[in-house]
Automatic annotation (TrEMBL):
Residues 589-612 have a biased composition (Gly residues). This is TonB-dependent receptor. Residues 576-587 have a biased composition (Basic and acidic residues). Keywords: Cell outer membrane, Membrane, Signal. Residues 576-613 are annotated as: Disordered. Transmembrane segments: none annotated. It comes from Qipengyuania aurantiaca. It is found in: Cell outer membrane.
Amino acid sequence: MSRKSALLALTAIWVWQVPVASAQDEPADEGGPEAAAEMDEDGDIVVYGTRLKGQLVIDQPPLAEYDEADIAAFGANSIADVIAAIAPATDSGARGGRGGGRPVFLINGIRVSSWREFRSYPPESVAKVEVFPEEVAQRFGYSPDQRVVNIVLKPNFQALTAEVEYEQPEDGGYSRNEQELTWLRIGEKGRLNLNLDVEDRSLLTEAERGLTTPGAEDQAQFRSLVSDTMAVQLEANYARAVIESGTSFSLNGTVNYGESLSLSGLATDGVTVLERRGESDSYSAGLTVNQPFGAWNATFTSDNTYANSQTEIDRNDASGFDTARSRTYTTVNKATLNGFPLQLPAGELSTTLDLGFDWKRIESEDTRADEDFGLTRRRLNAGLTVAAPIARRGGPLGAIGDVTLVATGGVEDLSDFGTLANWSLGANWSPFDNLNLSATRIWREVAPSLTNLGSPLIEELNATVFDYRTGDTVLATLVTGGNPNLAAETQADWKFGANWGLPFWDDARLNVDYGINRSRDVTSTPAFSSAFEEAFPDRVTRDAAGDLLAIDRRPLTLYETRSRILSFGFNVRGQIGKEPERSERRGGPPQGGGEDAARRGGPGGGSGGGGFDPARMEAIRVAFCKVPEGETPDLSQIPEQFRTRLLDENGNPDPEKIAAARQRFCGAEAEQRGERFAAMRAAICADPPKLDGLPEQMLARLKGEDGEIDPAKLAALRERMCSAQGGAQEGEQGQRRGRGGMMRMFGGGNSQDTRPRYFLSLNHNITLENEVLLSQTGPLFDQLNGFVLGSGAIPRHSARLEGGIFWEGYGLRLSGNYVGDAVVRGGDFPGSSDLFFDDLATFDIRLFANLGEVFETEDGWMKDLRLAFLIDNVFDARRRITDETGEVPAAYDPLRIDPTGRYLGIDIRKAF
């Protein structure tokens, strides 16, 4: 038998059994895109497979995952847009907003220095995106308050993309434009990315919305609703891998410059326009180094930034302007060591050790202050995370399912706050394959940020404020800045979660989180309300007549806060309609065994509709078998999905994997396995089948309960073994599960499936409790009932939606936000009034067309050209806020709260 025939046999799609992966290997995906079939000593055909390189291998399943086709359906221009499209899945609702909003990011399963390192990458460079719950962050040296997003990049990619955007409100008044140029190259040894982004937005005044402010009716044209801004960003990213040592590193450099201008009316002379002018620039550099040490893996990240800002504020008496300057120096460094030091009965013990060094300094100057202000913080931290498998299906205590305990402990020393500690203990239980339950207890001490401690004092003159005491809209001074007297916060939380893969809906997951948050000595930036004035009367300045003059909104310390949040998430992706018949996909009649197979040149042979591509297989055989042993074959001749299986975690050729592939495809054992497979296939596909020569184990699988050959099982086996079409069906079923198939890799697969593709991500949060206690003995402020000390009214319900559909080059993406109704109490003063906030639902639509695909052209100017139209706030919805009489106070005029309304835009993107 020729080596070419042996290779055909080895790459057969039929999956008779899948061996259990060893503890050191990644789990096998049946029929996956990187699978390779071979025959064991018992005559059974087995298929070995791996996940995409860079996918996470952990106990907890992802909350959501998106493959290459899903990402294409987003119509995104960058990875930043992709993250925005899956925002409902990445939201940490049950942690009460303790996280910074943005999740923890990994690239190919490895920590990165910062978001800057990859945000501008084009979405076409992404093979897969996985979203994991907050507890997974602990395994990478982070605290469990943000979800984890793992982005798996393609091993080979190159593109230059240019993008131009123009946007403005339907009512006009101002506009925004942006130009962006991005180049990315991902190769076998590394990647390089360059990005230039320029953005400009014009000014919008009260006069352009027909608004007036009580006490300044003639100043509408000198009061801004939207600031005039301009920003420029230049970014460079470089990553490299050293094949010999397994070391990989990445570098990032970013430069930002921005300007802003806002108007605050007229000075006391009635002539001079009061301006607030801002200018800022920042310089950032990041480094990531990853190094394997045997069974351990070490990662070091460093993120360094210098930021400088200057604000000029015109004086109300028209005597000139005051200047507030701020300079910030930051370096954040973390090293982690991951490994599996101990084999337990139920699996390996996972260990993560993290060490960190941070340093930050803020310097502020203000011409209104007597002296300059400066704060410095040095932070040393260390932590240990241990994940211990307690039970595994098919192993110890397997009857109860998979159970893993995760414990963390850490300590940090701050130069300005001393020693702080943290710990957590969690359990993950999967009683069934599609259900995961978790419970986590989190306790930690947190110091207030240097920004809250040391920001420069800034006074915003003539700000429009609603005075709850009088029910009037007035002009007052808002004071913002830092507070050096803040205390360290102590957090004690519970989080319970359930993640269920719906058995009746492919690729659909429902997750529910319940969080109980308790904090002591909480840093809060307050909003003006009757409750705030009652609790902190010295922060509100009034004249002798009781008229409001100024509000001090600098951060303060609250004795205790309590909250409980229930969060629901639903994520699904798929295709609409019935899958086309195989004959439609192949352009020919269904194919089977027997005489049909003979007309095609034998079982599974011939090119008349078979799924195997002999030319590609011969290219693989040549690539592996014609190159001297020890040298790296030309992997460019190998299909991409199979080539990915031969690369290490850094995207470089792995010598051990290449050697194993050579042995499997070129060695004498490959010849023997191929001959055994061919003989077995000939026996099964004969008419009638010749079963006497089959291995005993295979005969046992073909028998029914009565011990006789089951005709249905035999027919199914003949369909798989004797028809290339049957193999294609098996591969495509795996493809629908998001795993791909070998038939597609070698020229077959569902290439003509033109069904519409959709995705939907929905998150809904219910706030069950939100209270503030000012001291051990009270008073207690129920913020859900309107006694608000923090920022703004607090609704019980909020939701976020992202969904879309993509079909033959056309796409639609729908984004939705919902905020429930809420109330802010006005107090018991004569003339005071409660404020009632109606609920609000807004929807944004993005329509796009890939013109090259629409017009079926792969050449010319339309190739890789996308045209998109956006409509934000489609229904021009604005929140309505009324007092007790049903009137809308001037400070809460819907046009003042949201001067933009319905927003229109056009985006043109071209890839070269």
